[in-house]
Amino acid sequence: MNEIKIKQVLSEGVKDFVVESPVIAKKRKAGQFVIVRINEDGERIPLTIVDSDPKGGTIRLIFQEVGKTTCAMGELEEGDSILDVVGPLGKATHVEKIGTVVCVGGGIGVAPVYPIAKAMKEAGNKIISVIGARNKDLLILEQEMADISDQILVTTDDGSYGRHGFVTDAIQQLIDDGVKIDLVLAIGPVVMMRAVSNLTKKYNVPTQVSLNSIMVDGTGMCGGCRVSIGDKTKFVCVDGPEFDGHLVNYEELMLRQKAYLPQERKSHKNHKCRMEGME
Amino acid sequence: MTESPTTGKPGPNKKAGKRNKPKKPKVPRQAMPEQAPEIRRNNFKEVPFGYPIDTAVIEANRCIQCKKPKCVDGCPVGIDIPGFIKAIAERDFEKSIRIMKEANALPAICGRVCPQEEQCEIVCVTGIKGEPVAIGRLERFIADWERDSGNVSIPDIPDPTGRRVAVVGAGPAGLTVAGELALKGHKVKIFEALHKPGGVLIYGIPEFRLPKSIVMAEVDYVKKLGVEIEYNAIIGKYYTVEELLTEEGYHSVFIGTGAGLPYFMNIPGENLNGVYSANEYLTRSNLMRAYDFPNADTPIAMSKKVAVIGGGNVAMDAARTALRLGAEDVYLVYRRAREQMPARDEEIHHADEEGIQFNLLTNPISINGDEEGWVKSMTCLRMELGEPDASGRQRPVPVEGSEFDLEVDTVIVSIGNGANPLLPEATPALDTNKWGNIIADDKTGLTSMKGVYAGGDIVIGAATVILAMGAGKEAAEAMHEYIMSIDV
Ligand SMILES: Cc1cc2nc3c(=O)[nH]c(=O)nc-3n(C[C@H](O)[C@H](O)[C@H](O)COP(=O)(O)OP(=O)(O)OC[C@H]3O[C@@H](n4cnc5c(N)ncnc54)[C@H](O)[C@@H]3O)c2cc1C
Ligand code: FES
Fold this sequence. Notes:
The complex is a heterodimer of chains A (279) and B (488).
Chain A: E1 4-11, E2 14-20, H1 22-27, E3 33-37, E4 45-53, E5 58-64, H2 68-74, E6 84-89, E7 100-106, H3 110-122, E8 126-133, H4 142-148, E9 151-156, E10 163-164, H5 167-176, E11 183-187, H6 190-202, E12 207-210, E13 226-229, E14 232-235, H7 236-239, E15 242-244, H8 250-257, H9 261-268
Parallel strand pairs in A: 7-8, 7-11, 8-9, 9-10, 11-12
Antiparallel strand pairs in A: 1-2, 2-5, 3-4, 3-6, 4-5, 12-15, 13-14
Helix pairs in contact in A: 5-6
Chain B: H1 37-40, H2 53-61, H3 70-74, H4 81-89, H5 93-103, H6 107-113, H7 126-129, H8 135-149, E1 164-168, H9 172-183, E2 187-191, H10 200-203, H11 212-224, E3 228-230, H12 241-245, E4 252-255, E5 261-262, E6 275-277, H13 278-285, E7 305-309, H14 313-324, E8 329-333, H15 345-354, E9 357-359, E10 362-369, E11 375-388, E12 394-398, E13 404-407, E14 410-413, E15 417-418, H16 422-425, E16 452-454, H17 457-460, H18 465-485
Parallel strand pairs in B: 1-2, 1-4, 2-3, 4-16, 6-14, 7-8, 7-14, 8-9
Antiparallel strand pairs in B: 5-15, 10-11, 11-12, 11-13
Helix pairs in contact in B: 2-4, 2-8, 4-5, 4-8, 5-8, 6-8, 9-11, 9-18, 13-14, 14-15
The structure holds flavin-adenine dinucleotide (FAD) and FE2/S2 (inorganic) cluster.
C-alpha cells in the first residue's frame, strides 16, 4: 500500500512523488487533496493531488520540505511506503467552460494549480498561466504548465528568469492589454493570493483561491482548519479548499498558519531543513 | 463519597454466594482504589485501579439477587446483572464473564464509561436505603479479570453464509454490528476514516479514563472473529455507500459514523489562535499523542490558563487533559448551575478533586486576542436561573452589568457535536432530519435506502457508548434477517 513508485527532485527542497493508491487514483478530481502520515509518530498533513493515473493506480504528490514531517518525507526513497494516505478530500473544483481562465501559481503553488488548469483546459477553456518563483532554481513544472496552456507567463522575484517581478505584475499586464479574463485561479503563499485577490477585486474579475490551513482529520470533525470567508466560518477540509478569493480573511489565515511555529522550531531544531518557505 | 477504604479483606460474608439474604452488619459499597488527585493530575495513567478480587467478591455479595431485577431493565443492552454478579460472589469468574458477554461484547469499556448512576444503579433496590451495588465497577472487574487471565475465549463461528457486509465507522456502534454479524457467519469489513479504530473511544475519551490498550484489546477481539478493518477509508469520498452495494458487492451496509461535527459558539474571536473545539484538542492529545510532543510530531498549545466552555463529559475530559498537559489554571465555564451539568457525577467529582475551577452560571460573550492573533482573555457574563425552558431546566438569564474578563491563553469550546454531513451529502438517497441525523427505524436501524442501516450518534445525536452498542445490536439482528432473505 502507498508505495513510492517514482521520486524526483524538482528544485532544492521540492520533491515529486508518484505513489501507489489505486482507489484514490480513480476517484480523485481536480482540486482535491490527500492527508498523509509517514510513520507511527507522524502528524497528518494535507497535500494536493497533482495528477493521477487511474489505470496505473497512482497519484502524484509534490511537496516542499518546510517542517519536520515534509523533511522526513523527502528522505523516503522509491520502494518505501507512506504509512497513511487518506482521500480524496475536499470539494473538487467546479470545472466548466467559461472562457478565459488565468491560472496563477506561486512557488510550490504551481503544483496544486496544475491539475486545475489541466481540467479547465480539458473543459474547453482558454488557459493563460502565470507562474512565479523567488528565482529560476525554485521554479517548478514550467514545461507541464506550458503543455496545457494557450499562453504562459513566467515571473521571478529576482529577475533571474522570465519577467522580473511578481505574478501580480503579469496579471496587471494582461488586464492592461485588454485581455478579457473570466476567472482567475490563484494558488501559492497566502501573501500572493491576497495580492492577486486585491488586484482582481479592483477589476471585478472573479477569483478562486485554494487555501492551505493546518489540518488534523480532514473530515470536518475537528474544526482546526477553519477560516473566515466573508462573515462565515468555514472548514477548509470539507467546505474548501477553494473559496472566493475576494471573501477570504487572509490576515487571520496567516496568523493561524503560524499557530505552532514555536513548537515546530523546537521539534525540528536538529533537522537540516529550513523553516521558511511557505509564508 | 462515603465509602469505606478498600481493604481487600474477604469480609464477613465469604460463603454468602449460596445464601442471598441481606447481610448484617450492613457492608458498605466498596470503594475502588484510585490515584490521588495531586498525583494523577500530572499523568495520563488511568485514575481508578479497579477492584482487587476480594473486594469485588465483597461488593458482589451486596447484591440481594432480586427476583424481578430492575437493574436489568435499566440497562440499554439488558445484561443479566444479578447473574453475572452472583457468579462473581461465587468466585466463578469464567461463568460471570460468559453471562456478561451474552449481552455485552465490550464490558471493559462499558464498565468504565457507562453512566451507571442513571441506568442500572439508580434503580438498584439496595440503593433505596443505602448505596446501590457498584454494578459498573463489577462489570469492569470481570472484564479486566478476563483480559488479565490472557485467555479471552473466541466463540465458534458458524460456516460462512456467503453474505458480505460493509460497516462504516469503527466506533462502538460499528464494532458491535461487525462483531455480531461475524458471529453469525457473515463476512464483515469495516471502513474507518481515521488511521485507528475505536471512534470516540480512541480519539475523544482520554487515556486516564479509558486506556487505549483496553480499546485495542476489544478491537482485537472483533478482528479475531474474522472482521477486517480498512483504515483511511472515508465513505462518501473513497467509496460511496452506493458503490459499496454495487461494484464492491456488499449485501448490506451499516452506517455508524458518529457525531463528528463540532459546534462553535459564534461569538467574536473564535478563530483566534488558542481556540480549539474539544474534538480538536482531544484528538491532538489522544489520537495524535501530542502530550508526547516532540517525540510524537503533532503539537498542541502549551497553555497556562485554559477556559473550557461546556458542562458535559467532553468538557470534563478536555479540562482534565489541559491540566495534565501542564496548564496551571483550568476554568470550566458553564452557563447553568452545577446540578444541571450533563456530565457524569463521577467525572465532575474527579475534575473537582483535581483542581478544575468551576465558573458556573457564566456565559462567554467574546474571546479577545493580542496583536499576534493569540487569545489573551475571554469576556463573560454572570447568569442567574430564570423560568424553566422547554427541556424543563431553569433557563439561565444574564445578570445585567455583570460582564467580566477571564484571563486565559487557551479556550476549548465543548458545547456539543452535530451530525457530520460528509457521508449524507454524498448519499442523496439517504434521508436525514433537520439536524442532519440519518433517519433510521427505532427498532431495526433501517434507513430510507434498501439494505442500508444506521445507528449510534449519527442517528440519535451525541449520546453514549452503550446506546450506540445497543443500536448496533438491534441493527445487526435486522441486517442478519435481511441478508438471509435475499438470494446470493
Ligand atoms: C470526549 C468524549 C467523552 C465521552 N464520554 C462518554 C462517557 O463517559 N460515557 C459514554 O457512554 N459516552 C461518552 N461519550 C459519547 C460516546 O463516546 C459516543 O456516544 C459513542 O462513541 C458513539 O458511538 P458511535 O459508534 O455512534 O460513533 P463514534 O464513536 O463517533 O465512531 C464513529 C466512527 O466513524 C468514523 N467515521 C465517521 N465518518 C466516516 C466516514 N464517512 N467513513 C468512514 N468512517 C467514518 C469515525 O472516524 C469514527 O471512528 C463521549 C464522547 C466524547 C466525544
Ligand atoms: S481538518 Fe479537522 S475539520 Fe478540517
